[in-house]
Amino acid sequence: MDSVLIEEWNGEKAAILSGGGQVLDSSGTPMLSLGLKTVPHGQEIRYGNLLPDSPGRELVIRYNGHRPNLMVVDSSGQIRSRFRVEESPNNTGLEVIRWHGPGNAELIYSPAALYDGDGNKVVTFPELPPPSGGKMGWYHCFPADVCGDEREEVILYEPYSDAIYIYTPDAFKPSQFRGYTHTARQYNARLMD
Q1: pLDDT digit string (tens) for 122-133?
Q2: What is the pLDDT of residues 154-175, one digit of tens each?
Q3: What is the tens place of the pLDDT at every residue in 43-92?
């Protein structure tokens, strides 16, 4: 079961769990629980500002195990969209990317494209070679503001290769660059395996 500690959910510190699609307060009491009927095998879960017309943050859940099926749920527990992303060898690799910067709708990474909260593929990565790792070769992703303009770049790597690919939403502007600063968003224990 995937879990993520988050800073705030509806004004309270909370943790989100993929199993049953849950948000728990700091004492472990459910603030939101979609249940096992809706999320029979939560494999990955992330949160972010995925829908511009929805107040608060939304969850994106790989809700039925190692399959390419995702669901976006608003902070009240309403399912806002269900969609299918492209297959990857083990159908994992979910991240939320602040592609357009703070205050804008964030995008969902699932190997190897970006989707909006409605499930539309909105960004592909040109010139990305096929993974070299055979049956389990797929691109891992982490978001980082490498260019220093408050938008996150997509940093992709395949564990069986020594190449790293960085995709940015816009051309690098040296006048905006303030230097790269490592943040908590660049740490994900899943990427360390």
Answers
A1: 999 988 998 887
A2: 999 988 889 999 999 887 778 8
A3: 999 999 999 988 889 999 999 999 999 999 999 999 999 999 998 888 88
DSSP-assigned letter for residue 64: B
pLDDT in tens, 9-20: 878 888 888 889
**CB contact set of 156 (below 8 Å; sequence gap of 6+):** 112, 125, 128, 139, 140, 141, 164, 165, 166, 167
Burial of 11 (0-12, 13-18, 19+ CB in 10 A): exposed
* Residues whose CB falls within 8 Å of the CB of residue 27, separated by 6 or more in sequence, listed in order: none
Q: Report the Cα–Cα distance between both ends of the chain, in Å, rounded.
A: 16
Residue 55's Cβ-side half-sphere holds a number of Cα atoms within 13 Å equal to 3
* Distances from the Cα of 147 to the Cα of 18, 123, 144, 178, angstroms: 32, 18, 9, 8
Encoding tokens for residue 28? Answer: 């472990």
* Distance in angstroms (rounded) separating the CA atoms of residues 27 and 50: 27
Q: In this structure, which amino acid lies at residue 143?
A: P
SS3 41: strand
Q: Among candidates 2, 56, 6, which has minimal Cα distance to 184?
A: 6
